[in-house]
Amino acid sequence: MGRKATAGAPKIAMVTAYDYPSALIADRVGMDMILVGDSLAMVVLGYDSTVSVTMEEMLHHCKAVRRGAKDSILVGDMPFGSYQTGSEEAIRNAVRFLKEAGMDAVKLEGGVYQAEIARAIVRSGIPVMGHIGLLPQLVSATGGFKVQGRDEEGARRLLEDAKAMEEAGCFAIVLEAIPDRLATMITNSIKIPTIGIGAGAGCDGQVLVMHDLIGLFDRFTPRFVKKYANVYGMIEDALTQYRDEVVNGQFPATEHTFTIKDDVLARLYA
Ligand code: KIV
């Protein structure tokens, strides 16, 4: 997965998945990478933020994704609290993503400040994807879901973050919610691929949260999301129709039912 779009290679396509059927589909359509993102906290488990999701919950979903995906590279997102407390615990938890849940790599949020942890995990033999820019695990500390790196100081910090994660040995970096020309500049300044989400077209690849792009998350849609479907609406229509047909006796129809021979039934009634 070392391909840089600047070298004319096709861009890297990545999407999140959280369960067996979504992983199966993502894998079959040829996604290069599938991220079992901690966004599952909000879009699948209904938490208010990603902070609450636990290692056990992440591993549970990773295992389901592993069973669905055969070819895509699988990246498990290390949840808040699973790597910030020191290299030893970070390595122990990263190992669990590979050993227990069958992931190929892990992702963690942070730049310069998490570079030592990332380096330790890489040195233990586990591929690490970095994640800089908007860091959902830190939104309460950093003032909400805001575009990062708009002023010179912030932009310089992001460039340093990217270089620190590259230097730590990360194999790729997610750039989240940063201005497109800054993302392009960062992409051109490092050798490892950048995967953008709300970071413009100049990145080496793109990632989106599956429930956003298929229209299955009802709470909000970030500006950078393109909605390719309205699955929420489709499920709502199907369930409404099913409920109505059950209530008015239209379902099940003859074609959905099993038969029994007349004589067998007659003997039961006798
Ligand atoms: O958890 C997640 O889905 C992510 C993506 C937004 C990159 O980290």
Automatic annotation (TrEMBL):
Swiss-Prot/TrEMBL catalytic activity: (6R)-5,10-methylene-5,6,7,8-tetrahydrofolate + 3-methyl-2-oxobutanoate + H2O = 2-dehydropantoate + (6S)-5,6,7,8-tetrahydrofolate
Molecular-function GO terms, alphabetical: 3-methyl-2-oxobutanoate hydroxymethyltransferase activity
Enzymatic class: transferase
Binding positions (3-methyl-2-oxobutanoate): D38, S39, D77, K107
Cofactor(s) named in the record: Mg(2+)
Primary location class: cytoplasm
Domain of life from the UniProt record: Bacteria
Cofactor binding remark: Binds 1 Mg(2+) ion per subunit.
Keyword Magnesium set for record: yes
EC code: 2.1.2.11
Pathway where it operates: Cofactor biosynthesis; (R)-pantothenate biosynthesis; (R)-pantoate from 3-methyl-2-oxobutanoate: step 1/2
Location of the protein in the cell: Cytoplasm
Keywords, alphabetical: Cytoplasm, Magnesium, Metal-binding, Pantothenate biosynthesis, Transferase
Residues of the active site: E176
Amino-acid positions noted as binding Mg(2+) in the UniProt annotation, renumbered to this chain: D38, D77, E109
Family: Belongs to the PanB family.
Its job: Catalyzes the reversible reaction in which hydroxymethyl group from 5,10-methylenetetrahydrofolate is transferred onto alpha-ketoisovalerate to form ketopantoate.
NCBIfam families: panB (TIGR00222), PRK00311.1 (NF001452)
Subunit structure: Homodecamer; pentamer of dimers.
Name of the protein described by the UniProt record: 3-methyl-2-oxobutanoate hydroxymethyltransferase
Organism of derivation: Candidatus Chlorohelix allophototropha
Species classification: Bacteria, Bacillati, Chloroflexota, Chloroflexia, Candidatus Chloroheliales
Gene that this sequence comes from: panB
